[in-house]
């Protein structure tokens, strides 16, 4: 087949299928009939010649509301491999595809299962995945394709997708915009299709087609219907008119069969014939469609009838009467009565008004879709059920159920529309409460007016009074989280505490609420509860996530790291990628403050990636700011500034205070390392100013040591003493470890000569084994003080300990400072050799750590949502970087990274 005017596109696709390694794929984007399918056909043929296996799926407008219909089509030829998948993936995929019953699978576990299955298939023979008309794919299948596309790294898998607009645009595929043909190519195509056209008609067709390939190939067949005096019509309307005119000349039975086929989402000939028999009241056989084949409207494949173009499919129902369409839909409902979801949808499309029976059937279909992980299909079914509801309360309830699913799946516009529709009718008090709090689930309410916090508190109280404690606690938790991202003021915080007092105290969410709302006033009580509960960490990942967040708020970074580290595996196993970046960000933020840069770096990097993928810009900004802090501590000031700027842009978009606070902390660390002490003091002091967007009630108190260091070296000792006096008062209200560690450090550094030594000694007597960076900081400051007192010999031991600690932690900037002090004290230091933390990317470091723990490639892939082949490729790159040749040697190398502080 000759494709006119598409040489460049064909070359790109041929290169893709000729060597898919290192290539993700291509997204062909263009209007209907522009030639996307023709290009795909050529690429698939080239792939077959190159020895690739071609797996196909195609979206169909009628299947958009059937969860995982497209994925089922894609994976059906390789379904035997499902049995070899790891158990969690196998269960998720079988449930999603309706092959087994089970709990609602995570969309990400389904995606990982599909990725693993494709990678296993590609191990035997390279694979080309073809997905056509992605704009019509069901949302669940499109999400899986995007998940797979983002993770094709080294597998011999290529992906070619076609669409008009919508999904996959951010999935990392190369975009191939397909425009209309240039004049010479259009003329060649028309002449090849209709070589003997009248010159006047030829000119008219070239002008009206405007380089549109489908128009150039299809309009000549209806040239007798064209009047050169006709006004110009929109191309789609013109083509639909052309197709409809072909249908009008067909026998009645053929027209009936075509209408049924156009409304049937599967293309099954058996179903089409069965429904046509119901419409006509007489038996029919496949020959009934032969006139449509002769008219080039449809084609036969094995057991299927397919339309030659989507416009042909849409033109037929558009030209039919309403009664004919209803009759065909009811006939299809009867033909698929053993398939409850499809039966319900065809009944719904045939309904002429409210019908509670059909609405209930759709609600059941929504529940089945939700349990398979098809949120988009469930939303569509519930919305349609609402339209058919006879009772206004049932209508609103179904709309709000759909809105809740839209919130959970991050579809803000859909959720807002559904809530707005629900509010258009009467609402019971319960439904009013639901509608009021649903949309607050987006972005933790960061963009909302802080006054909204008081409204949510009142709503939580009202819902609790109605006996709905769990719903009320969810509302209260959402309001409390706003106290992390924004500053609502003392009155709003007090209101939240008053409402929290109405609930039973044994819910872990209440511990987190107290920590978020009153991190110092309630800090000691929260810490006591956390210390009791830490022994049970690992039992429930969601509870651990709550408690990790609570620990961070009250300055217990060691507990925050433990709880969040316990939460991460469970959230991974459950495929809860919406919550996973939150746990990872807490884990990374806390570990950096403890000095565990090797553990923090991969967590922060993964949090950034997953936050972007799951649509959480502010959580991603927070993780970016943590990456900036890591770079600053490692002495990579250029990278630190770049990351800080990027994080600041994310935080400033809505005044996300924790993001901006962490950005200022990173910038302060860079300025300290570069000797710009006045800049460092100015950067860090911003955290203490309630009028500054970087002010965050809890986090402001957890960088006291850095602030003190900057103040003393910038000649701002008196200003720092005033700050310390305020912090002393704050420390008297809470046992927050990070605050007390910082205050002890500041007391010693700011103390007069007569009391300084005792204060340094007291600071070192405190148990700081879990806080190695803070302990190293005290040793460094004490050593510097001793050297200034001309007690040089005594200073060396402290400075040496500081240097060794900071070297082990990878805190290059602080280690270099210890070296300089040691040189001034008359002792040279060996140069620090680069270790694994310098040689590996955060992603590689994460894989190396898991491999060192003894996990297999498959197990690592399940943890990190990668294929096992990708893991293997990364390990092949990691081994030479570390100078090792086996997993045993790798484990030794990774253990060496933790020698300084006993852990990674």
UniProtKB/TrEMBL annotation:
Q: Where is this region: Disordered?
A: 820-841
Q: Which residues form the HTH luxR-type domain?
A: 833-898
Could you tell me the keywords of this UniProt record?
Answer: ATP-binding, Nucleotide-binding
This protein's source sits in the domain of life called Bacteria
What SMART domains does the entry give?
Answer: HTH_LUXR
- Which chain regions cross the lipid bilayer? none
**Entry-linked SUPFAM superfamilies:** C-terminal effector domain of the bipartite response regulators (SSF46894), P-loop containing nucleoside triphosphate hydrolases (SSF52540), TPR-like (SSF48452)
Record PANTHER family = TESTICULAR SOLUBLE ADENYLYL CYCLASE (PTHR16305), TRANSCRIPTIONAL ACTIVATOR DOMAIN (PTHR16305:SF35)
Identification of the protein by name: AAA family ATPase
Q: What is the lineage of its organism?
A: Bacteria, Bacillati, Actinomycetota, Actinomycetes, Pseudonocardiales
